[in-house]
Design goal:
The protein is α/β, with parallel strands linked by helices and 194 residues long. It is 28% helix and 18% strand. The chain has a seven-stranded parallel beta sheet with strand order 1-2-3-4-5-6-7, with helices on one face.
Length: 194
Amino acid sequence: MGLPTVFVRLTGCPLRCVYCDTDYAFQGGEWISVPAIIAQVRSYPTRHVTVTGGEPLAQKACHELLVSLCDAGFDVSMETSGALDIGGVDGRVSRIVDLKTPASGEVERNYWPNLLFLSPRDEVKFVIADEADYIWARNILLEHHIHQRCPVLFSPVWGRVAPADLAQWLLRDALPVRMQIQLHKILWQEAKGR
């Protein structure tokens, strides 16, 4: 958070999280070749690129795009729902895996073998909609020792959990995680695609 980053948002997602704030990415968009995406990314003055969605791994050319971005010298991360296998993602890519909490309505879609693929370059994110989500995430974190494999982020659902409340729960339980807020919503409110 806080680094100037180019977002490459891919269309399509097999999940329908209750609190999804990018449902405009479920369909639409335009077909763009991988070389054209690389050229467009190069037009920005940053070397940080995040491939996101929807669900980027649902796109056939996602792996090719990730490899091409890395080959072009970019520092690449990919944000994924955690419902699809991350094992084949190029090792140069930082994978941000969103473990779906119960309030998302998609908790049963978590692909638990992904935890075996995590490295210190990756991150796991829990999006917290209420205190029950927080307790579930805390228990999963500690049960699977996720914080020993990679950094862990807890993020409040915009408009559902006050960031101060999440901060209090984290301080109370002294969890080994970072709190994350959606900086783009603070800076640009409802602007899409930033």
